[in-house]
Amino acid sequence: MAMISARKRLESIESNVLPSMFAGIIIKDEKWMKKTLEKTLPNLEKKALELALKCKAEGECSENELLCDETRIRELFKETRLKLEKEFLIRAGIG
User: Fold this and answer.
1) How far is CA 67 from the centre of its chain?
2) In the list 41, 60, 64, 81, which could disulfide-bond 7, CB 3.0-4.6 Å?
3) pLDDT surpassing 80 at residue 90
4) Based on the number of CB atoms within 10 Å of its own CB, is 66 exposed (0-12), middle (13-18) or buried (19 or more)?
5) Nearest residue to 11 via CA among 78, 66, 83
6) What is the pLDDT at residue 54?
7) What is the pLDDT of residues 31-65, one digit of tens each?
8) Helix 41-57 to helix 70-91 angle, to the nearest 10 degrees?
């Protein structure tokens, strides 16, 4: 079985997983939103930060590379949370 590098996994979270959360079919209801905001995103953020550290430790990312920048990763997840909340309110007819 082939192992996917930490860098590729981190790139996938950023380019595939986070954007997929905005697909119309995925946003379902308040229960989904609560789980996403309280469990899914925090766990994914933690994993992304761990992958960034692993990338740096294994030399897959340079110390100054944006992909592995912990501050940028935290901001990306913060922005995703805010966008999801806004999108949910719009779709629910509240916002």
Assistant:
1) 12
2) 60
3) no
4) exposed
5) 66
6) 95
7) 888 888 899 999 999 999 999 999 999 999 988 89
8) 160
Measured torsion, CA atoms of residues 64, 56, 84, 23, in degrees rounded to the nearest 10: 110
Q: How many CB atoms lie within 10 A of CB 77?
A: 19
Residue 2 has pLDDT above 70, yes or no: no
Tell me the residue type at 81.
R
pLDDT of residue 21 exceeding 90:
no
CA-based nearest residue to 48, from 70, 66, 65, 32 = 70
Sorted by where each begins, the domain ranges of the chain are 33-60+67-95
